[in-house]
TrEMBL record:
InterPro entries listed in its UniProt record: Thiolase (IPR002155), Thiolase-like (IPR016039), Thiolase_C (IPR020617), Thiolase_CS (IPR020613), Thiolase_N (IPR020616)
Domain of life: Bacteria
Assigned protein family: Belongs to the thiolase-like superfamily. Thiolase family.
Gene Ontology MF terms in the entry: acetyl-CoA C-acyltransferase activity
Domain spans labelled Thiolase N-terminal: 5-255
Full protein name: Acetyl-CoA C-acetyltransferase
Pfam families membership: Thiolase_C, Thiolase_N
Active-site residue list: C89, H342, C372
Keywords: Acyltransferase, Transferase
Domain Thiolase C-terminal: 263-384
UniProt organism field: Lutimaribacter pacificus
Length: 386
């Protein structure tokens, strides 16, 4: 089978809600990622066959096919097509899968997989509430679905609490994990570990070059003092991912394109898996997806050097670690979304960027990333650093 190679993977530093990146239109922010992928690789932008852009909240400034608008906001020629995909939080990871599949099938040779989300300018759920507020329709969960699953809505916060309860995770365990995420991210920032993967953006007052959500002074007391999200639960805003503005992307090419454009690959795609399960508990599916991906790839858990498990809520990576038996010291080694932020549609290729560059820096070979997603799905990608 033909191979799919990753020749560059980058991300913007995360911006807090109403923070450093709030002045950036999401199409412009994503356009800067497209520009940087071309600049860093030196590839002829006219040779790009397609841009596949992940985005979750496709309303307002993120409506009207933001993938195409990102191309129009970039320096890419307008002959480059683009499409926007939605697999909830896994949208740009799915964009990576679609890009790699096109290359491996021999249909295309040069594809950008990317993602963007401005959670400041286009608030979460904005696409689902506009018509409801106008009294039009019944929302995305139909009466038939509600009857089938016995719920009035699918709620990720309830799902995360259900995961914590199912796997015996306490508030103290979640808070300790959150503190570790901040400490790891702070250490990675101070050591310069993120410099290769990040794309600084110009903002009022200077350059935004560091993830804005990291709490360098976080303590067990400060995290433990944050109110719970649900009375009687274990989740708080401090042990859940941060609302975040950001964009990310990767350039995926065939072996033919490597030779034709004189490119040097960072990694190759080893396996792409997506699975689906219970949409009510919703967020535990990375466990099943990981086991499936390892089985498909023929790799053993201890052959994977680094793992990136999205920290949508601390209960998710903790449950994943408990069930898979993976090494916590090889998981989210530079922190995760609790510290760095979770810019929804951009998080898939954000994790990819962090994973690949961490593998390269540490001399690792195989990396695995996985993402819990609304509706009870999960993506897993395994890459080999080259």
């Amino acid at each position: 089978m033909a191979e799919a190679y990753i020749v560059e993977s980058i991300r913007t530093p995360g911006g807090r809600r109403k923070g450093a990146l709030s002045g950036w239109h999401p199409a412009d922010m994503a356009g800067e990622v497209l520009n940087a992928l071309v600049d860093r690789t030196g590839i002829d932008p006219a040779s790009i066959d397609d841009v596949i852009m992940g985005c979750v909240t496709k309303a307002g400034e993120q409506g009207f096919n933001i993938g195409r608008n990102a191309v129009l906001a970039s320096r890419l020629p307008d002959t480059v097509p683009a499409v926007t995909v939605d697999r909830q939080c896994g949208s740009s990871q799915q964009a990576l899968h679609f890009a790699a599949q096109a290359v491996m099938a021999g249909v295309q040779d040069v594809v950008i997989a990317a993602g963007v989300e401005s959670m400041t300018r286009v608030p979460m759920f904005a696409d689902m509430t506009v018509l409801a507020k106008a009294g039009i329709g019944e929302g995305p969960v139909s009466a038939r679905i509600r009857e089938r699953y016995g719920v009035s809505e699918f709620n990720q916060f309830n799902g995360a609490e259900m995961v914590a309860q199912k796997y015996g995770l306490s508030r103290d365990m979640l808070d300790a994990y959150a503190l570790d995420s901040h400490r790891r991210a702070a250490g990675a920032t101070e050591s310069g570990a993120f410099e290769r993967e990040t794309l600084p953006l110009q903002v009022d007052g200077g350059t935004h070059s560091r993830d804005e959500g990291i709490r360098f002074d976080a303590t067990a007391e400060s995290i433990g003092g944050v109110d719970l999200l649900i009375e009687g639960g274990v989740l708080s805003a401090a042990n859940a991912s941060q609302i975040c503005d950001g964009a990310s992307g990767a350039l995926i090419v065939s072996e033919r394109a490597l030779k034709a454009h004189g490119l040097t690959p960072l990694a190759r795609v080893v396996d792409m898996t997506v699975t689906a399960g219970d949409p009510v508990i919703m967020l535990e599916e990375p466990i099943t997806a990981t086991n499936r991906a390892l089985e498909k790839s023929g790799l053993k858990l201890d052959e994977i050097d680094l793992f990136e498990v999205n920290e949508a809520f601390a209960s998710i990576p903790l449950a994943w670690l408990k069930q898979t038996g993976a090494d916590p010291e090889r998981t989210n080694v530079n922190g995760g979304a609790i510290a760095l932020g979770h810019p929804l549609g951009a998080s898939g290729t954000r994790l990819l960027s962090t994973l690949i560059h961490a593998l390269k820096a540490r001399g690792g070979k195989y990396g695995l990333q996985t993402m819990c997603e609304g509706g009870g799905t999960a993506n897993v990608t395994i890459v080999e650093a080259l």
